[in-house]
Every structure is written in C-alpha cells, then in structure tokens.
Design a protein that fits this description.
Chains: A alpha/beta, B mainly alpha, C mainly alpha
Strand order of the largest sheet of chain C: 1-2
Number of strands of chain C: 2
Order of helices and strands of chain B: HEEHHHHHHHHHH
Structural class of chain B: mainly alpha
Order of helices and strands of chain C: EEHHHHHHHHHHH
Helix content of chain B: over 70%
Oligomer: heterotrimer
Strand content of chain B: under 5%
Number of helices of chain B: 11
Structural class of chain C: mainly alpha
Helix content of chain C: over 70%
Number of helices of chain C: 11
Number of strands of chain B: 2
Shape of chain C: flat
Largest sheet of chain B: 2 strands, antiparallel
Largest interface: B-C, 94 and 94 residues
Radius of gyration of chain B: 26 Å
Strand content of chain C: under 5%
Strand order of the largest sheet of chain B: 1-2
C-alpha cells in the first residue's frame, strides 16, 4: 500500500509587531509654532500614466524643521518626496496635478528648470550612491558643475561639507581615495556631504538609514539635528522610533484600496506636530499604525 | 514501495537499482559531443597558428627579421619586405578609429541616455542595417562612387593647405585617383561603427540608475550627469570596445583592398595610395605561383592573426578588469 | 511664476540655469544627434546607389542564366546564375556545419561547463575567435584543405563555417542562459537524463533566440568574400557539385567585377550587389520575425 503525504493546510500567520508604547512625555507641546512656509502643497495628486499613485495631498512644510513622512509600504510617501525636487520627472509617464509651491513659486510652472530646482532642493537616497571617483571629487562635483573652479575655494567647500556631515575626521587623510571604498554609514555621510556642498535650501531624505546599522543610524540622526538650523529637512522613514527621535512634524500616509479595480492609491491621512501624531492621533488609521496594529 | 524522491540527474530513475553509478551511455555520449564541439574552437585556433606557421617558415628563415621589416616588396626578385603593408594597416586603422569612435560613442550615448526607449528602435535598425551590408558592397560603392568624388575633395583640400607646415604634409597633394589611406580609413570607419556602438551600449547600460539619479539630484544637466556618473563607470568598457573595433579594422580585407590604392609606399601623405596586409594578400594571392611568394603571403596572414588576437585579448582584458573594479568596490 | 522668495526676502530664480551650462548641454545633445546623422548618410547613399544601379541590371535572365560572361561583355549577355547558386549552396552548407556545432558548443558552456575552467576557456576563446579576420580563415582552409584536396565549394563552406562558429556559440549561449532553471529542475524531477533535459526542454525553450542568432550569422557569412578567394577559385559555369571543383559566389564576382573597367562589368557588379543585399536583408528580417514571434525569453 502506498503512503500518501498528508495534506496539511498551511496557515498564513499574521506577524504581529510588538513595539513598546512610544515614549512621548505628556508635557511635550501638542502644537508648535510655525516659521516660514517652504513648501505649500494644495490638492496635489501624482500619476504614473493613468494610474493614480497618490491622491489629494495638502500640507505645508516649514522652514528649519525636520518633517517626517511615515506610513505603510506602497502609500506613496517616496512619490510625494520625489515630486518636491522634481525627481519624478525622470520616470516616464509620471505626472503631477495640483498646486505645489516652493517659497511662493510654482514648482511645476512651464518655465521652471528642474536642474535649478534640484540645486536648491537636494536629495539623499536609500542606498548610498557615491560616484566612482575620489572622496574629494565626489563632494566637489556639485560645486564644480556650478562653475566653481578655484582650488582653494573647492578645498574649503569640501572641508566644510565633510565636517557638517560628521565625516571629515575619518576621511581627511584619504580624500583622494575612491569613494566606493567607504563603509555603508560612511558612504551615506559622503552622499550627505555631497548634497550639502551645493548649499541647498532643503534636504530631502528617502529612508537614508534603512540600510545602516544602529550606530551609523544614530550618527546620521545626530547630524540631522546639527544642521537643522541651516536647512529644512524632509525625511521618509518606515521606522517610527526614528520619526519620534528626529522630526518636529510628521505626516502619516496610508493606502486606499479600490476593490473594483484592485488598485492602491496613497493618501495623506494626518499631518501635525510629531508629539501630537504619536501621542494623540486624531484619525483612527493613524492610531492603528502608530500603535503597531497595521503595516 | 520506495518513496518518491526527487530524481538525481546523474542517477536517473530508470537506472538499474539504487546502486547504479554509471550514467547511461547516451547521456555521457552527449556530454562528450558537446565538449568536442566546444573544444573545436580551441582546436581551430591552434591549427590556424600551426599550419600557417608551417607554410611560412621559409619566408621567416630566409628573410629574417630585417628582411621582413624592410620596405622592399618585390616578388620578382624574391624580396618580401612587409613594412609598407604594416604601415598601411596601422595608418588606415587609426584613421578609421579617429572617425568611428566619436560617432559610435555618440550614438551609444544617444540611444541609452537621450532617446526614450520607445523611439530607440528605428535608430538601432539603422545601425543594424549598417552592419548587414556586406563588406564587398561597401568596397564596390567605395571604389565606384566614393573614390572619384573624394579625388576632387582631396585636391581642393591639398591646394588649400599648400605650404601649411604639418597639415600640408598630412593632407598634401594627392596622387591621381582618390584611392588612399584616408579613403580606406573612411570605409573602415563605416564598417566598425556598428560593433563599437553595440558593445559600448552594453557597457553604458550597466551604469546603475541610482548613480544617475544622484547626479541629477545635485542639479546636474544631462551632459553633466553623463560626465559625472556614466563616464567613470563605463570608460573601461568603452575603451575595450574601441580596441575590438581596432581589431576589426586591421583585419578588414575586401573594402580596404578596393579603395586603398594598392601601392606599397610608406608616406606621411594620407591622401596618397597605400597598401595594407589583408589587401596585399587578397590582391596578390592569385598571382603567387612560387612557393616563396605564397609562403610570404601566408606568413603575412599569420602575422595578422597574431596581431588581431593580441588586440582582442587586450580588449577583453580591459573590459574584464573595469567590470571587476566596479563590482568589487 | 517661477521666481521664489527666500527667507531673507530676496528673489530666487527657478528658471533656466546659468547660460553656459545650458548651452553646453544643448551643444552636446546636438552633437549626439549629429553622430547619428553621420551614420545615416553613407548608409542612405549606398542603399540608394545599389538599388538604383542594381535594379536596372537585374532581370530574370540575370539571376538565372547559367553562364557568367567575361568582363568585356556588356550587360544582357549571360547572367549571374552560377554565382547565385554558388552563394546559396556554399552558405547553406556552411550553416549546416556551423549551426549544430555552435549550438552544441554553447550547450557545453552553459549546461556542462558551469564555473569550470574549460567552460570559461571555451567561452573566452570563442569571443576572441570572433575577432579573427575572415581572410585568415580563408588562408587556414587553403593550407589545411585546398592544398590537399583542391578547390571546391565545400572548402569555401568550411571557411565560412569557421567564421560562423564563434558567433553562433556566443548568441546561442546568451539564449540558453535566459532559460529559467525551474524548467530544467521540473524535467529532472520527472526522471530525465541531462541530455534529454537539454534536448527536449532547454533547447526548445530557447529555440527562437537560437534560430534568430543563427540567421544573423548566416547573413554575415553570405556576404563574405575574403575566405572564398582562397578556397573556391572562380568559374563561369554553374557547378552544382559542392564537393569537387571550383565554384563561384556573388561576393567574389562583385570583387572581380569591381576592379574591371568595363561598363558591363560595373553593371553586373551592381546587380550582384543588389542580389546579395537582398539575400542578407531577407535573412535579417527573418531573424527579427523569429525574435518577435517565437522568442519566449528575452532580456
């Protein structure tokens, strides 16, 4: 008689992420004073072809603050981030509708040059992407394409940027070695130095620490606090503790499922001071996310 | 009954008992057949070297190194000095590279960085068409159409540059026909463009998108992005593809034979007629009745073989090394 | 409005970047398009000339008449029949030899060679061999075959096959590599030997790409002249016996007629060129159709 393998139905287990209740002291202010608006987004939607990836986003990013975009995967937070410096232009079929203003000027007006935008609104990527050049040339790339050729000035800019990125001490003796030879955390700080070298107004960060260990992450978070007074920072992160550690304001995005067409569209659920989003969320979806029941 | 186990490719289920170690004859035979087919490549390469060397030992031994590299090519007196042909091969190939490399790299960048994917197909078709036209047709067009036209062009350039120090010598007074080193260089350039373009495209396509985005995010224009992010990644591979093109240019026979002018002269005048190694072999082999003459021509063939193999080895070596540098870092 | 206001109240212009950078970018883009134009010009010229001059020479008699007249004769007497048949026969036989061997070689490298040194050596040497000039292949077959067995169409085929072999190996290898491993595993799991897996599953899965690569190799071989110069001699009558006796082909005929000063010869050369291009184009188009319709796995 032949043995038959027993068919055991496989159950899909839902992974429960157990996180401790976030440590927000109750005395932390729920409202924080606002400075100058840097980005003013009104009813913006982003499309890839006909597919609406993010719908109806309205928020204001304020000067010299760190704003975090959080939310489950696929909710469009990176898409929104990339529209702020027109990086989505590089994707075929991507388009934006609605009103996006940067310091009073429309970002998507027809006579606006994306290269001019990106010089002022820099970006650090999820995976560090140093150029296959020396450390010095990596940082000097931005200033050089902006016409700075004077060696003394370039030296000064490179040193300043690397110091701001808390990398100077580690690389000052190996400025001519390849940027590809750095460790993950160092390479990411090199990319930050490179971005700071053109003296932008805003620094956008797309999950900059997701590939790094906790110590490297901590260093980058410290540097974010240090440069905050000179720049405006927007950071996308899937790590809620990081959002509470660094950001002043948080925007929570979620996903709308269209049952008929089985598509997912991102939507901005709630936006406010970080302490309020995590300590006293107004929307139940926000509450579900920050207490760990979703995503 | 035995349990159903995943079949081991070496011991298929049909073999006798679970202790059978030998693979079925057919399976082993097939493997040997494929190995033989693969080894054929090595065998042929070795045989080429060996048989051509055999046929040309007479030439090497009697002429010696000085004889081979002399400029006296006179079969009637048994002199087979090949320097003029070497010179012509090198010069026409260099001219071909000077023309073809900027064009090929330009098209490769155009296809990979400028043109959206949807519209790149017609451009790729044009390059493919360029490659599929047989070399003898290029030579035919060269000698019947290009050469007469260039004759006039060369004369005007030469008269215009009369007396100018360096350029006057290079581009000076052409001899009668318009078939020259430079004409051969032009035809060779047309013929090596497709291979340089397609190899360069392969290399440029391996540049990771995030590097390009990094450059754009710093506010770079497209050209600045190409210089900053694309070029450092792909320069090794592009140099390798240029060398492959060089190998092709040096070995190209028919088109060169028809338009180079067939005159065994060494001269700095690029508009003068010249000769190249494959051209002389093709043109004079039919008349080569004596063993010595034939041996010399075959010896030239061996020389060409070794030269092109070396160039190709260097080319592949450079591509490999730069690919490893990008990967390892 | 494209002018923003920074925190100090001063205007920030978001329009085009500084003049020289934009101009340089535009110049470079123009140069890249110009290089394409440079490629287009000779191609257009050659195709127009071949079609115009060749079309007036080609008629049924040209293609089928079994005698190639001497160069001095004007167009109208004789034709290129022997050359057409020669090209088809010689290239066909070369394909028959080179394609199976090339596919088997690629099978060795991809299925059996793996990371072993022999497999990598064959792949590397095969790439190096694609750079060997065609005239060297002709000389090789001359010394190894013609000196012993005389001129024949088959000798020409061998020379062409040597040219085609590395090309077929490389293109077949690329296609075999794309076949997903899960197909092989599924076949093994049913108890097939490696040979059977390769012959019945892997090669059929890659056949579209293999065939199209082979067609392109044949197209290149059909146009080759130099290898044939030393192996087939040239004749004026059709020699349908591939295995003995000299033969002729379109490519060698074009070469011979190109240097002849007679008007008839020139016209015959253009006609032969048009015929040859038509053959090569047909093969290239066939290769594209095969790629579009029958290739399951592509990059």
């Amino acid at each position: 008689m032949e043995e038959q393998e027993e068919q055991v139905p496989v159950q899909v287990q839902q992974e429960q992420e157990i996180i401790p209740k976030l440590d927000i002291p109750d005395t932390a202010p729920r409202e924080i004073p606002t400075g100058n608006p840097v980005f003013d987004v009104q009813n913006a939607s982003m499309y890839y072809g006909d597919f609406r990836a993010v719908t109806d986003v309205s928020l204001t990013i304020y000067e010299n603050e760190i704003t975090a975009f959080i939310g489950p995967s696929g909710c469009g937070k990176t898409t929104v981030l990339r529209t702020l410096n027109r990086m989505n232009d590089l994707i075929v079929g991507a388009r934006v509708e609605g009103d996006l203003r940067y310091r009073g000027a429309s970002l998507y007006a027809s006579d606006v040059s994306p290269t001019a935008v990106r010089r002022r609104i820099g970006m650090v990527f999820q995976k560090a992407n140093p150029f296959p050049k020396s450390v010095y040339d990596n940082v000097a790339y931005g200033p050089r394409i902006n016409g700075i050729r004077n060696k003394a000035r370039l030296d000064e800019i490179v040193e300043r940027s690397l110091k701001q990125a808390a990398l100077w001490d580690e690389v000052k003796d190996r400025l001519n070695k390849s940027g590809l030879g750095l460790s993950g955390g160092q390479a990411q700080r090199l990319c930050i130095a490179r971005t700071l070298a053109v003296e932008p107004d805003v620094v956008l960060m797309d999950e900059p620490c997701s590939a790094l260990d906790p110590i490297a992450t901590g260093r980058i978070e410290d540097l974010m606090h240090e440069i905050k007074s000179q720049y405006t920072i927007v950071i996308v992160t899937h790590n809620m503790q990081q959002a509470t550690r660094v950001s002043d304001r948080t925007a929570f995005y979620s996903v709308l499922r269209d049952a008929r067409s089985d598509t997912r569209t991102g939507v901005l659920v709630e936006y406010g001071p970080t302490a309020q989003i995590f300590g006293d969320p107004r929307d139940e979806r926000t509450q579900a996310y920050v207490t760990g029941r979703m995503g | 009954m035995s349990a159903v186990t995943k079949a081991d490719p070496v011991k298929p289920a049909g073999s006798v008992g679970a202790l059978a170690h030998r693979r079925p004859l057919g399976d082993r035979g097939f493997q040997i057949l494929t190995l033989a087919a693969g080894m054929l490549v090595l065998v042929i390469l070795v045989l080429i070297a060996v048989t051509t060397a055999q046929q040309s030992t007479a030439w090497f031994s009697t002429a010696g190194l000085s004889g081979i590299f002399s400029t006296n090519w006179d079969p009637t007196t048994n002199h087979y000095g090949a320097l003029a042909f070497l010179y012509g091969t090198v010069i026409s190939s260099v001219i071909a590279l000077v023309i073809a490399v900027p064009v090929s790299v330009g098209v490769a960048l155009l296809l990979n960085e400028v043109v959206p994917v949807r519209w790149s197909r017609p451009i790729v078709y044009v390059i493919d068409l360029l490659a599929v036209v047989p070399s003898v047709v290029w030579g035919l067009w060269g000698i019947l159409v290009l050469v007469p036209w260039l004759n006039g062009v060369y004369r005007s350039i030469a008269s215009g540059l009369n007396g100018v120090p360096v350029l006057g010598t290079l581009f000076g007074g052409p001899n009668s026909t318009g078939a020259s080193f430079f004409t051969a260089g032009i035809i060779l350039a047309i013929m090596i463009t497709p291979i340089i373009t397609s190899l360069s495209r392969e290399v440029i396509a391996t540049v990771p998108a995030i590097d390009k985005e990094g450059a754009y995010a710093l506010g770079a224009t497209r050209w600045e992005m190409i210089r900053g992010a694309v070029w450092p990644h792909s320069q090794g591979g592009v140099v390798g593809s240029v060398l492959v093109g060089l190998g092709r240019a040096m070995g190209e026979t028919i088109a060169a034979a028809l338009v180079i002018g067939n005159s065994a002269e060494i001269t700095g005048h690029l508009f003068y007629s010249g000769y190249s190694i494959p051209a002389v072999i093709a043109n004079q082999f039919g008349e080569a009745t004596g063993g010595a003459f034939r041996g010399a021509l075959i010896g030239l063939g061996l020389f060409l073989f070794v030269l092109t193999i070396l160039v190709n080895l260097v080319a592949r070596g450079i591509v490999e090394r730069s690919a490893r540098k990008m990967r390892g870092a | 409005m494209a002018v923003a206001t920074n925190s100090a109240g001063r205007p920030v212009d978001l329009r085009e970047p500084a003049g020289w950078r934009r101009t340089k970018n535009q110049i470079m883009t123009v140069l890249m398009w110009a290089s394409f134009a440079v490629v287009l010009v000779p191609l257009a010229f050659v195709l127009v000339k071949v079609f115009a001059a060749g079309a007036s020479a080609i008629n049924w008699q040209f293609l089928t008449n079994s005698t190639i007249p001497p160069n001095v004769m004007p167009l109208g007497t004789g034709g290129m029949g022997p050359a057409v048949i020669g090209t088809l026969e010689i290239t066909g036989f070369a394909a028959l030899v080179a394609i199976p061997l090339g596919v088997l070689g690629a099978v060795y490298v991809n299925e059996y060679g793996g990371r072993g040194i022999l497999g990598r050596l064959v792949a590397f040497m095969s790439d190096v061999m694609t750079g060997v000039p065609s005239i060297v292949m002709g000389l090789f077959i001359y010394t190894i075959w013609v000196l012993h067995f005389g001129y024949s169409g088959m000798a020409g085929s061998f020379a062409l096959a040597c040219l085609m072999l590395p090309v077929v190996i490389r293109s077949s290898f690329e296609m075999l590599r794309l076949v997903p491993d899960s197909l092989r595993q599924g076949s093994y799991a049913l108890g097939a030997t490696k040979a059977r897996v390769t012959l019945t599953v892997v090669i059929p899965a890659a056949i579209g790409g293999i065939v199209s690569g082979a067609l392109l190799a044949v197209a290149r071989a059909a146009g080759e002249t130099a290898p044939l110069l030393f192996t087939i001699l040239t004749v004026e009558q059709t020699n349908s016996n591939l295995f003995s006796g000299p033969n002729t082909a379109l490519s060698t005929q074009i070469f011979a007629n190109a240097t002849s000063p007679y008007v008839g010869a020139e016209a015959r050369a253009w006609g032969a060129a048009l015929t040859l291009i038509a053959i090569a184009f047909t093969l290239m188009i066939a290769a594209r159709i095969v790629t579009a319709r029958f290739t399951r796995y592509s990059r």
